[in-house]
Amino acid sequence: MISLETLKGRLADFPRSELILSPTPLQKIERPSTTPVGFDLLIKRDDLTGLAFGGNKGRKLEYIVADAVAQGADTLVTWGGIQSNWCLQTAAAAARVGIRTVLVLLVKPGAPVSDDGNLLLDHLCGATVRVVEVDSDRGFLSLEDVADLIAPIMDKEKAAGRTSYLAPIGGSVVEGSMKKPLGAMGYANALVELVEQMRSRELRFDTVVHASGSAGTQAGLVAAAKAVAPHLRVVGISVASDRDTLRGKVRTIAEGLLETLAVDAEIEEDDVIVFDEYLDPGYGVLTPEISKGIAALASSEGVVLDPVYTGKAWVGLLDLMETGYISHDENVVFIHTGGTPALFPYRRQMMGFLTD
């Protein structure tokens, strides 16, 4: 364990482009109808980071973009789903520092491609967009999964005389042009910010809950908690992978981050908590429960979640409260990781669930 100031100093040793508005607000849930009775719950509003509708990826990109600039890149290349929050945030971050973006957006056969939500914003941010149809069962959370799709893009950029930086999806796994866990570093920084906010309110800090996808956000939180707040429980609600797969990625990235920050600590098996019980029926599949959870929070607190990440994590959080995994005497922080533009492509399905 090290002091908070020591961790802040070590994080400050790495180049960072100032892309977001921070610290993001920490909002207390006031309406008792929103959550089970008797819980103290706050929301860390990382949907208000200020970069193209906000979201957690902005924190990661502060370090990744700085690394790309340091490597002399004039183009950022990355990939994701057709409504990828990560891809939008990458395009917006690149625009802020004056470099190009090429996005490889994957779509399942027969799926509609509409210039809506994040895809519309990708174009507004000036990204070069390549839409690629892929098999329904094809993975996409590692470079190995999509190497055959990315290589021609990188070759084309090189032939055009450009210097490209290949940023891994979600800014999470150390691959492509990223040689250190820079994305996770963004969420180590976020935990420092959050601990300071809780201390300023003289609040005990017990549990953090968030949507966990490509593993970088959770890895940063886990590593920083291990360094400065080992009592803190970091709970990831999986939105894309089974429990064991996601836990393995989180642990690998978190261990790499501790090594990068010269923190003498080890990530234990119990430090990485993932629930995949709320994953079905699959990534990006909207359910009546998620729709109603989003509507309940918006109508009581004015906080809008998204259907792919935070809506699913919110439903999971409420269930963990109701079933006793999270106890009444805990102070819980839910991290709103953004993604709200994805609401709009789901609008008809969501309204159907809400009006049944």
Instruction: Supply the helix-strand structural class.
Output: alpha/beta
Strands of the widest sheet, in order across it, are 1-2-10-7-8-9
Low-confidence parts: none
The coarse silhouette is: globular
Average per-residue pLDDT, rounded, comes to: 94
- The gyration radius over C-alpha positions equals 19 Å
| N-end to C-end Cα span | 52 Å
Oligomer: single chain
Determine and state the CATH class of the largest domain.
Answer: Alpha Beta
Give the CATH topology of the largest domain.
Rossmann fold
Helical content stands at 40-55%
Order of helices and strands: HEEHEHEHEHEHEHEHEHHEH
Strand content: 15-25%
CATH architecture of the largest domain: 3-Layer(aba) Sandwich
Number of discrete domains: 2
What profile does the largest beta sheet have?
6 strands, mixed
Q: What is the count of β-strands?
A: 10
So how many helices?
11
At a glance:
By secondary structure, the chain is an alpha/beta fold.
Task: Describe this entry's structure for a reader.
With 356 residues, this protein is of the alpha/beta class. The chain has 2 domains: 4-56 and 181-355, Rossmann fold (3-Layer(aba) Sandwich); 72-171, Rossmann fold, CATH 3.40.50.1100. Helices cover 41% and strands 15% of the residues. It has helices spanning 4-12, 57-70, 85-97, 117-124, 143-159, 182-200, 216-228, 243-260, 288-301, 310-322, 347-355; strands at 26-28, 40-45, 75-81, 100-107, 128-133, 164-166, 207-212, 233-238, 273-275, 331-336. The strands form 2 sheets. A 6-stranded mixed beta sheet has the order 1-2-10-7-8-9. The chain has a 4-stranded parallel beta sheet with strand order 5-4-3-6, with helices on both faces. Helix 2 crosses helix 6, helix 6 (182-200) packs across helix 7 (216-228) and helix 7 (216-228) packs across helix 8 (243-260). The model has no long low-confidence stretch (mean pLDDT 94).
